[in-house]
Amino acid sequence: MQYLYAFLIGGALCAIAQIWIDKTAVTPARILVSYVCLGVVLSGVGAYKPLAEFAGAGATVPLTGFGYALAKGVAKGIQEFGFLGIFTGGLQGTAGGITAAMLFSLLAALIFKAKPENL
User: Fold this and answer.
1) What would the DSSP string read from start to end of 12-54?
2) Could you give the angle at the alpha carbon of 54 between the alpha carbons of 100 and 102, nearest 5°?
3) What is the pLDDT of residues 3-39, one digit of tens each?
4) Using CA atoms, how far apart are residues 75 and 70, in angstroms rounded to an integer?
């Protein structure tokens, strides 16, 4: 059942973003940033943790999950380091994901040859 919940919640988050891209003039970059901010806001009001526990990877893998991880990291950083934790906690909370993205990007750049875009 956990796989089904992850698929439904993650799919719904992605479908909403796709509809937003297709039906509005908002740029995809702004929609992505909005999703990260939405994850932070929902974490701040305590609504994202129950969703993440219910849907698992369906809620933590999309960009809203990145916002959730940022908020969790900041909260933990504030508990450990006080005011300084506001600036360091988000990076500590998301360091694994950021490192993985950089590593896989490097591997893709080394394996595949980029082709110039015809303008």
Assistant:
1) HHHHHHHHHHHHSS--HHHHHHHHHHHHHHHHHTT-HHHHHHH
2) 5
3) 999 999 999 999 999 999 999 999 999 999 999 999 9
4) 9
Helices 48-55 and 28-44: crossing angle in degrees, nearest 10, is 100
What are 30-85's pLDDT values in tens digits?
Answer: 999 999 999 999 999 999 999 999 999 899 888 899 999 999 999 999 999 999 99
Asked if 63 and 37 count as a contact pair (C-beta separation under 8 A), the reply is no
Evaluate whether 63 touches 42 at the Cβ level (below 8 Å): no
Cα distance between residue 89 and residue 14, in whole Å: 27
Q: Which residues of 4-26 are buried (b: 16+ CB within 10 A; e: fewer)?
A: eebeebbeebeeebeeeeeeeee
- Angle separating helix axes 2-23 and 28-44, nearest 10 degrees: 130
Tokens of 88: 């360091």
